[in-house]
Amino acid sequence: MAKNIIMNAADIRRTLARISHEIIERNKSTEHLILVGMRTRGVPLANRLAANIEGFEGVNIPVGALDISLYRDDLSSLELQPIVKSTNIPVNIDKKAVVLVDDVLYTGRSTRAAMDALIDLGRPHSIQLAVLVDRGHRELPIRADYVGKNMPSSRHEEIQVRLKESDGIDEVAIIPVPAKEN
C-alpha cells in the first residue's frame, strides 16, 4: 500500500512552533500552564511544545504523560487487553490550565477518556486540546483548541504519525487501509 506524506519534519517543526505561540497567546500567562501528552506520541509532542514555549518565553512549563488505557470505552470488545503504561503528572493539576496533547484527533473517544483520567487526578481550571492532525469523523462533541493540520480523510485511510523519539523519523502520512469484509 502506498503512503502519501502529508507533513515532513520541517512541516511538523513549523506547526509545533505555531501551536506553541497560539497556546501562549490564548493563556496570556504561563504561570498556571501544564502540558499533558497522551501516550504514546502525544508525550514527545508535548515535550516539543514545552521546549518551544521555553525558547519563546524563557519559562519552563511542566510536562506530564497520561495513559488512558483503563478509561477506554471499548475495553470489553478488545481481543487483546491493553498494556497499561504509567501516568506521570509532575504537578498538581488543580486550578491549572491543562493542555492535553495528542497526535491525531479522530472520533474523540480517546480525548474523552483522557479528560476522564485527568478529572480523576484533580480539578483543573480548564482543559484545552492540542493535536497535530484533525482528521474529522467525530463521534463525540469534542473539538481541538489547537490544530496543526486539518486533514479530512476517508474511514478507509489511516493517518500515521511517526516521530523521531519513537520511530526515528518525523513525518505524517496518510495510508489506504483495505475495507474489512463482513
Output the structural class: alpha/beta
Largest sheet: 5 strands, parallel
Question: What general outline do the C-alpha atoms trace?
Answer: globular
Question: And the CATH topology?
Answer: Rossmann fold
Mean pLDDT: 92
Q: Indicate the multimeric state.
A: single chain
Portion in beta strands: 25-35%
Task: Count the beta strands.
Answer: 8
Detail the poorly predicted runs.
none
How many domains comprise the coordinates?
1
The residue fraction in helices comes out at: 25-40%
Query: What CATH architecture do you see?
Result: 3-Layer(aba) Sandwich
Description:
The protein is an alpha/beta fold and 182 residues long. The protein has one domain (9-70, 84-154): Rossmann fold. 29% of the residues lie in helices and 27% in strands. The chain has helices at 9-27, 42-57, 109-121, 164-167, and strands spanning 4-7, 33-38, 63-66, 97-105, 126-134, 146-150, 157-162, 171-176. It has a 5-stranded parallel β-sheet with strand order 3-2-4-5-6. Strands 1-8-7 form a 3-stranded antiparallel β-sheet. Strand 4 (97-105), helix 3 and strand 5 (126-134) form a beta-alpha-beta unit. Helix 1 packs across helix 2. The longest helix has 19 residues, at 9-27. The model has no long low-confidence stretch (mean pLDDT 92).
In a few lines, what is going on in this structure?
This protein is an alpha/beta fold. The protein has 4 helices and 8 strands. The protein has one domain: Rossmann fold, CATH 3.40.50.
